[in-house]
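Changelog excerpt

This revision adds worked examples to the README so contributors can see how folded entries look when concatenated. The first example is reproduced verbatim below.
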Amino acid sequence: MEFFLISLLNGVSYGLLLFMLSSGLTLIFSMMGVLNFAHASFYMLGAYFAYSVGLKVGFFPALILGPVLVGLLGAFVERFGLRSVHRYGHVPELLFTFGLAYLIEESVKVVWGLAAVPYRVPAILDGPLFTLYSTSFPKLRGFMMLVAVVMLLSVYLLLTRTRIGLVIQAALTHPQTVESLGHNVPRVFMLVFGGGCALAGLAGVIGGVAFVTEPSMAASVGPIVFVVAVVGGMGSLAGAFLASLLIGVIQTFAVAVDWSLAGMLGTLGITVTEQTPLYSLWKLQLAQVAPVLPYLLLVLMLIFRPKGLLGTRAD
């Protein structure tokens, strides 16, 4: 019971971090139809900006200023870069964001170096939040969950309960009508792109201190972000939320167990020996294949439900 509850809490906290990261990508795609390959790079910038700002003003001000700086940079990229190639179609957009990801990564190496930076957990978030049976649950993971839930509620209320949220949703389906009412649709899209990048930056502020802040951190989380977006359904925030929790829980449980096919067969009285065909495959433990499981889920989703869990489009 202890193993199940602790693994579930760890899986949910990791899933909520994935949602913080993937929500911006989903929001940008749903509003603008742009698949931003550089999204994970903005996540990395959030961690580095928070590290640098935190050295001057502390972690909690950096928690606000880091995403703001990333959002402003994202708005600048949309206004003076992405907007210029948007009219040429999706392929130029993909190439632009793909090149942007490399540009950001190399810039990070030039400014902060090749080694990981000492981005530490603040003292107030260091230590156990509570103890369940004999296992302690860290304060940082609890704070991560709190920030993710607050972000989810804020985005939901912004899009459904405010005037700017209604304008954003209307600009998605009826841009000419919205423009005829006096709203600047290109500016709306610039704010959406900047806001999506800011959400990635927020995830970077939390993820950078929870894991390691280094130039390769974008490459390590980039693929999983797209897995979450596709499994949840491209453009669906609710789908991204469910997919994030699902993948977070699956990976956490898989890493924590040492089951193997050989062991399962052994409980049924079937012995696997070195002479058994594909012996090395039978002996693989679930923890060893845990990193592959999200991509296996992606393949199965594309085969049986291409539009994702809650998606409305399969393209």
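The second example, added in the same revision:
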Amino acid sequence: MSGDIASTSLGSTNSSLAQLAQRLGVQWTQLAAASARTKQKKSELSRALAGLDSADTSIVAFGSLARNEFTRGSDIDWTLLIDGQAASEHLAIANKIREEIAKLEEKEPGGEGIFGKLSFSHDIIHQIGGQDDTNANTTQRILLLLESCVLGKPDAHDRVIGNILGRYLTEDRGLWYGSGPHKIPRFLLNDIARYWRTMAVDLAYKQRTRGGIGFGLRTIKLRISRKLIYIAGLLSCFSYEVDLDPARRRAIFNGDGSLAALAHLKNVMMRPPLEITAAALLLFPELDAHSAKLFSAYDEFVGLLADDEKRDRLNTIPYDDLRTDPTFKEAQQISYRFRDAVSGIFLNQDNLLGQLTIEYGVF
């Protein structure tokens, strides 16, 4: 989940992404521009929506705004998250939020009906797995953890995040009593992996139900920004092994208990996906060549989406023209470079990230 965007912008000394760029001697200009646009847009929205939340409700944004990658063509995916007693005025408040966002001439949320309305904490927290854990419920839960930011009061959002993570950690018996050499929260990891596969399956579903409209843009997003969400989820689950020295890890799992484990994981996941990824890769200088390729490809991807003409083309290419369209071929090459960098990091047994991915992220 994204925290304070100002504290994680590319120009901030607190930004892991900025530190990595400095070490590599590169500049990711498109990411820097998107970060600046994000900060401005978040400020505009917070002012416009002031007073529409409470201690029991948070206005939560997802998507590129939460990832710190907002471009002119980005839409605003949002929900009014309710963590308290249901009230009749909640629907009116949600309608008012929709009106205020429309005044800023922002695009409507996606057409699947998951965003742009009310959401309630009970199902998000309690329905993990089973037939009542719908695609919409899983999407909201995983994106709250890995791709969300608050536009206003954070109280409800913070409580829901804590309760979600509390369930994943306290109910994971293997994490606390398993005999394996690593401390990996597999209950959480399996749900993140399930969501990643759901996004991949839904690409085919949307192709069929929408007659191929928008398939080009959705495909490239799946290969890059959606894959980044999964990467950030993997790294969050690996963080006990990657971030903590053995003494601190033993102290948490042999003495301090679930509250300390939750505090660590929550601190990791308070950052946007690019920051989670950069913070982990800062610990592996031997992977700098792959890190440079990964973030450079992502920078190109954000630049492509910031180009109105190219973005519109990706969203309107007829399905039968994808193989020959120059814009799609350009986007495809960016996705290949991103894929190769990801493989060099996460499918390479010569480094800890690769070892953990092969052992826990595949089977």
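Reviewer comment on example two: The mean pLDDT is 92. Residues 73 and 312 are 9 Å apart (CA to CA).
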